[in-house]
Design goal:
The protein is mainly α. The chain has one domain. Helix content is 76%, strand content 0%.
Length: 205
């Protein structure tokens, strides 16, 4: 029962996190000159439009997962290398902003609302939203396909990295899934998530 309750309490954070992440990608792409996300109906905060069933299940069960990627056409960008980097950074940055805002809401609850069972649950939901958005931010910056980090690294380094990704793309995807299922991703990024969580808490508390 406690396990199921815990999953239910982090569900709002997961749905908000993946929605804002993919919306930010789409919005940035449109601003850079590519209307593909708009034409595909991805410029929305409706989580149903962004859910990847398997990625959502991994996120719910293992704490790490992914949404359905927003499709972009970099040929519509004025500066493909720069603009694709901006689009890739937009998702993780949006998650950081949400984490910042919800840490502020935690401060409001702590300062102005009475201590009771309902507000305890509200605190857990807010805290879970902060943590899941930090997880999405850090996880998506890992430079392995299909995560945002591989676009960022590829655009910075150039052809050698893109050629490597193209050659081993499916192997790297399978490798990433194994890392998630067997807990290695958690060991790698949990310290960074904790660092950012503590940093935000120190800003507000």
């Amino acid at each position: 029962m406690d396990y199921l309750l815990g999953k239910l309490l982090i569900l709002p954070g997961i749905l908000l996190g993946i929605s804002i992440h993919e919306f930010a990608h789409g919005y940035a792409a449109v601003q850079m000159g590519d209307n593909t996300p708009l034409m595909q109906g991805r410029l929305t905060l409706n989580p149903i439009k962004h859910l990847d069933p398997f990625g959502f299940l991994c996120l719910l069960l293992f704490g790490f997962g992914w949404a359905k990627p927003v499709m972009i056409n970099s040929r519509n960008f004025n500066n493909p290398r720069r603009d694709d980097t901006i689009v890739s950074v937009a998702g993780p940055l949006a998650n950081l902003i949400i984490a910042f805002i919800f840490t502020g809401l935690m401060k409001v609850v702590d300062t102005f609302l009475p201590y009771n069972a309902f507000n305890q649950i509200l605190w857990i939901v807010l805290s879970g939203t902060v943590q899941i958005n930090l997880v999405l931010m850090v996880f998506n910056l890992i430079p392995i396909p299909p995560l945002d980090g591989h676009h960022i690294l590829g655009n910075i380094v150039g052809a050698p990295v893109w050629n490597f990704y193209y050659k081993y793309r499916e192997h790297l995807r399978f490798f990433t899934l194994l890392l998630i299922v067997f807990g290695f991703v958690g060991r790698f990024i949990s310290p960074m998530v904790s660092f950012f969580y503590n940093l935000l808490m120190n800003v507000f508390f």
